[in-house]
Amino acid sequence: MTVSNKHHRESRLAFWMLAPTFAVVLAFVVFPVIWNLWISLKPVSLADLRGDALFQFNLSLDNFQQVFSDPDFETVLLTTLVYTIGGSLLSILLGLMAALLVHTEFRGRALLRGLFIAPYIAPVVAVTFTWSFILDPQLGVFNRFAVDHGLLTQPIPFLSQRWLDLDIMGVGFRLPLALTSVILFEGWRYFPFAFLFILARLQAIPDEFYQAASVDGATPFQRFFHITLPQLTTVLSTLFLFRFIWTFNKFDDIFLLTRGHAGTKVLPLNVYDYAFGEFNIGASSATAMVLFGILAVFIFVYLRWGLRIEN
């Protein structure tokens, strides 16, 4: 067998081994995106999904015009970005704190690690119901405890009140209460994901780095900022990328907690409302394509400049 024939057979073998992966990506990633783009350019209602209207070549940008001309679109987009960035950063910060807490040896560390993972593996319906019950202004244990101990003068509807006026040291400002509550839930619910990755990276940092820094007289804060954080940069940036993508597409958490009321409506809820509230599948698909476009821009910026900064 000649070298060229051997190379040809190896190339064919590699192609056939990769063919199943390409087929899965084409069927479950590429085709749904193209099909969604096709529907977003057509006036499709829920009743048209079984008819021939889907295959008629009457394309337009009316659905995108409807989405962008919605008077609440800018507010919903801003809420989505605030919710996504706030929830992603909070989950990573809590994961970092939890990883630093259980990094060193102490009695009960294994049990504490298991408890930290509990919010992530618990069913989302169960944890959202628990949070709704705890924060309920009438029956919630948090409001009852705060009022009984003088922390609050009256119960606060954390998940149904849009704004909370605060005055701290003579400075007044308005806190988006319901949005802040769902961001706190997002950070608590998904910090175990960051916790596991950060803890794995912490355990891979050589102890010699810290020993040498201690000999040189470095304080714990100096060791953290000059050794730990630089070693975690790649992990933290990758976690933020993943959490941003997943949180930006999040639907179930906010839907179960607030139904999008009190200033917590995000773009994924718009997709649901157009499809099953107005039965406008075209506008729903157009909103989904807007989500896709924003995430594509974010990933491009991250890959173009974020990785360069890390390197």
Can you walk me through this structure?
This protein is mainly alpha-helical. It has a domain at 71-265: MetI-like (MetI-like fold). It is built from twelve helices and two strands. It has helices at 3-40, 62-69, 73-101, 109-121, 124-134, 141-148, 177-203, 207-215, 220-248, 252-257, 267-277, 281-310; strands at 163-168, 171-176. A two-stranded antiparallel sheet has the order 1-2. A hairpin with a 2-residue loop joins β1 (163-168) and β2. The longest helix has 38 residues, at 3-40. It is flat, with a radius of gyration of 25 Å. The two termini are 45 Å apart. The mean pLDDT is 88.
Highlighted features:
311 residues, mainly alpha, MetI-like fold, two-stranded antiparallel sheet, 12 helices
At the fold tier of CATH, the topology name of the domain at 71-265 is MetI-like fold
Strand content: under 5%
Number of helices: 12
Instruction: Determine the structural class based on helices, strands and strand pairing.
Output: mainly alpha
| CATH H-level superfamily title of the domain at 71-265 | MetI-like
Mean pLDDT: 88
* Major beta sheet summary: 2 strands, antiparallel
- The number of E-state strands comes to 2
Q: Helix fraction? A: over 70%
Contiguous uncertain segments of 5+ residues: none
Secondary-structure element pattern, one letter each: HHHHHHEEHHHHHH
Q: Supply the CATH class of the domain at 71-265.
A: Mainly Alpha
> What is the CATH-assigned architecture of the domain at 71-265?
Orthogonal Bundle
**First-residue to last-residue Cα separation:** 45 Å
Q: C-alpha Rg, in Å?
A: 25 Å
Shape type: flat
Q: Kindly report the spatial arrangement of strands forming the biggest sheet.
A: 1-2
